[in-house]
User: Fold this.
Amino acid sequence: MNQHHESTGPAEAQQITLRGPADLADALPYLMGFHPNDSVVMVALHGGRGRFGGRLRLGIPRSPQEWEPVAEQLAECLVKGSERRGERPDAIVVFLCQDPAEGESGSRVMERLRPLAQHLRRACGALDVPVLEALCIADGRYWSYCCPDERCCPAEGNQMAMPGTSVMAAAATYAGIHVRGTLREMEARLAPLKTSVLPGQQRALDAAGAELMPRLLDEEGRREVARNTLDLARRLVERFGDAPAATPSVSDLGDDRLISSDEAAAMILGLQDRETRDRAAEWMEGPEAHAALRLWRALSRRCVAPFEEHAAAPLTLAGWVLWSTGDEPAARVALGLALRLDPEYTFAQLLHEACNQGLDPETLRRCLRGEREARTEGGGHRAERGPRFRAARQAASRRKRAPSGPTRPGTAATRRRAGRAVPGRRAPGDEG
Assistant:
């Protein structure tokens, strides 16, 4: 299983009352910030009135043989994660969301996923936390796995409310909460291009790798590559900042045209060096943050086959900027994709866990500002990583990080040898 859990802490939103499966099904996109395709979602409830707490998402495993162990792991993650935040759940709500395959009905999806719902209910019950409701959402309809009454939960399911017409939708609009579309749409903005750009980008990445690899084996050459990468990144951030953004799809298309194949290849390979990547993370706030985010997204899309694993660096930078600027749902999507490519990518692990635990990104922002100021005061030379930076990383992740050092363009295994996570520990995406 190479997907990663996404969880959030209790949401601070205006209080509304949800009455029954229909309201729960309608509330799901507002709880997550997007429509979760092909997902298991579990939400903790607290107190006699069922206040929403932590929530957790995982892609539905393809093999039914994985469902029982995955259910046990998910239940433990949500319950233990809630306990770490100081409040054990009193109950849990489960959602199974999956679009029908070609020729498949929503009812068939519901029946096919019924064993997964049963495994989840048993796993939660084994931890003495009951599943208050388990819903399947497919093809614009919802079904309850807990209600046997055909009068309210018929075999053909119930139609979902029209978007924007429910009490939850009105409350979310009033609170300024926006649903960003589907999970599939959000991931597509970060997926490798499959257009006429593909052959030219492959050639550029091959050429850049052949040119940069010998230089990265030499310490002075590595420093020169780092300087060139950051200089190019600075020019590209300015270029993206000068180009106005439009709607997401139109903006992405325009952004792809702002960067050449050679520039993208140099940036992608240069960012495989961890110190260079960490320096790039300093574009994290203010107007430059939005421009940097567009650049990191564009670079993620340029990591075409067979260079997909190189996208872990720009995806992690995109996740960091999104978290730093307050878009936690999109940050978890980007960081989850980075961990899907390389489950041991330490920087993504740290950020994903910190984001999931509801920590304040200002701690890391403050350390990055301090490093930039120290470097400026030192005449432009890079300051050594000080205790404040390491402490902030450890506080955000509650783990020790491997010593800093260079990594080279190559496979995920190459990067893991240069910076392996603590043996025997799960990625932070595996915690509730």
Residues 6-13, 381-432 have pLDDT under 50 and may be disordered. The first helix runs from residue 21 to 32. The beta strands are 6-8, 39-46, 51-59, 91-97, 131-138, 141-144, 158-159.
